[in-house]
Amino acid sequence: MYILFLIPNEIPDAWVVKQLGSSTAQMLNLFYNTSSFEVKDTRRLKTYGKDQAWVTHSYVYQSGKQRAVIGIYQACDGVELMVLTAGFIVCFSGPLSLKFKYIVVGTLGLFFLNVLRCSLLAMVNLEFPQHFQFAHKYLFNLFVYGFTFLLWMNFVNRVKPVLQDKKGKAGDVQ
Fold first, then answer.
1. pTM of the predicted model, to two decimals?
2. Per-residue b/e over 64-89, b at no fewer than 16 CB within 10 Å?
3. What confidence tens digit (pLDDT) does each residue in 60-90 have?
4. How does DSSP assign 108-160, residue by residue?
5. Segment holding 7, helix H or strand E
6. Is the pLDDT of residue 150 over 60?
7. What CA–CA distances, in Å, run from 112 to 26, 76, 80, 89, 115?
């Protein structure tokens, strides 16, 4: 479903990319105490094997600069990691209400962490462009995946006593 329907129709990627770009520009304006950062959204035709699909990109520009300080694409929006996180939580045993809370907190947490990641990447690009590739590929991914891992571990540790309690009660009935 994701590959055949959601990706070609940009559901929910186009909306997330636009929100991420807008939020990144706002955060940069806050960090630099200015209003010179603005976002421009574009759509480009992208080829997936033999198929083509329109893909939304969000670029954050600083007034007076010709080049974008950061470009945000589908691969950067964090949707796949949000789905993976939700899938892990859904597949694990535990109370439905707890699963719902962790999926909501995890999804929102990943989005806001991604806004911070994109903002910091833009700052690295502006202040220390020679370190951009390292920060993009390794440093900030470590924070995002670290958050995801800690969320999963916290969920498992919260669910573990509930599961052990159910197992104990089932064992008591004889």
1. 0.85
2. eeeebbbbbbbebbbbebbeebbebb
3. 999 988 899 999 998 889 998 999 999 999 9
4. HHHHHHHHHHHHHHHHHHHH-GGGHHHIIIIIHHHHHHHHHHHHHHHHHHHHH
5. none
6. yes
7. 12, 13, 15, 19, 5
